[in-house]
Design brief:
With about 450 residues, the chain is of the alpha+beta class. It has helices spanning about 1-10, 15-30, 45, 415-455; strands at about 30, 35-40, 65-70, 80-85, 90, 105-110, 110-115, 125-130, 135-140, 145-150, 155-160, 165-170, 180-185, 190-195, 200-205, 210-215, 225-230, 235, 245, 275-280, 285-290, 295-300, 305, 325-330, 340-345, 350-355, 360-365, 370-375, 380-385, 385-390, 400, 405-410. The strands form nine sheets. It has a four-stranded antiparallel beta sheet. The chain has a four-stranded antiparallel beta sheet with strand order 3-4-5-7, with no helix packed on it. The longest helix has about 40 residues, at about 415-455. About 35% of the residues are buried.
Length: about 450
Amino acid sequence: MSSHLFDRALGSTTPHAFSVAYTTKLVHALQLAPNVQFDGRDEQQQQQPQTTQRGGGVVWAHRDGVNSVVADHFEGRLLLSGGADPSILLWDLDVFEKPQSGHHGSTYRPVGSESRKSGGHRFGITHLSFYPFDMFAFLSSSYDHCLKIHSTETMTPSASFDLDSVVYSHALSPIASHVLVACATQHPVVRLVDLKSGDSTHSLAGHAGAVLSVAWSPRDENLLCSGSIDGTVRLWDVRRSASCLGVLDMAYNVEMPRSESSWTGRGSNRTHVGPVNGVVWTDDGRQIITTGHDERIRVWDAATTADTLANFGPLVKNRQLASQLPMIVPSRLLAPGQRLMLYPNGGEILVFDLLDGRLLKRLKPVDPGTTSVSSGSGQRNMQNRTTSMTWGVGNVEMFSAHTDGIIRAWRPRTREEVELDEDELREAKEGDADEQRKKRKRQVLDDIYRDLTKQKITFG
């Protein structure tokens, strides 16, 4: 970094180049921010004793697990989280509490909430998204077969669409003049909901099983991708409902001539060997990334629909029917020629080079794989699995949702900051150990006194 500062002082590099070099370094320095907490408990729940296997307190955002999390892309100030309970919480990232002990950190509390009682969903949330052109409106889908539109100001639904099947995910085009919401449902069709007319009867048929993931092109407002349980990813022009444009075929790659592609009918017509539960575009629309139950990640050239043959290695895990979406680091933060992808791999997050598949980093929470929570409803064991990720807009930071009910923050941290957090954690553990020793001594003295007072003493 010092060389960039020197070049900037000499005027040999532009402010933009210097900024990109700095943010690139920050992105590569992402680590868990353990002192950042999202506390979704009410006052009564905060008074209940709760412990985990590591002996510390539990601060969860959603008690039954977090299924989805998304940050607004306007100011980066608002964060939405949807749980399996099925509540939706609104967080203001500019409003937080600092610990009174003097340690650095921050605790966020929801500034708005929606539940089943207030007209929300009846079952767990599957996906959340902000409206692309208004940070005060957002959409949610659920296992209760409904797609709902909400206001962040009132946290109440303003419209609801019953699609007669489980809605696994939904997507809105970030550039379109239309207001079509593509919905991946349990039916083998892509359902299109027109928010302007309220019509939800239009559908795109072609898959042979449930649709698990959908994504709009960031360059063409009419181009849509969908991944299905039948192992295919289909491309659609929403102006044509008769048939899809084609299938991303794993038999066709960049080393083969165009005449051998699946679009000529000579391929395998399969994108993955197993269900496809993740489809995303890069922000420039040049690549499509797909994930499937064959535990493979494939990167496709959007212009030629060819597999780029990027190999992401044997660490990739994917066996959940729910959407498992990789997250592409915004290109504005990286140096030219660099593309990074974050992949939710069970309880950890893998950082890959998108172009060649190299594993660059493994982001792991400090929590155990399985967390045992003791509360008023009894003992529960929850598997810690990453369900959703979202990128912050204002700062270089990322938030992840987990099935243990916790929202985790990931921020650039220097080695000194990591060592400081480790020292604070060590001091806290030593303080707890001292307190336990004092309690045991008091208990021993109490037992001795109780035994003496129970004995009958006679004087001769």
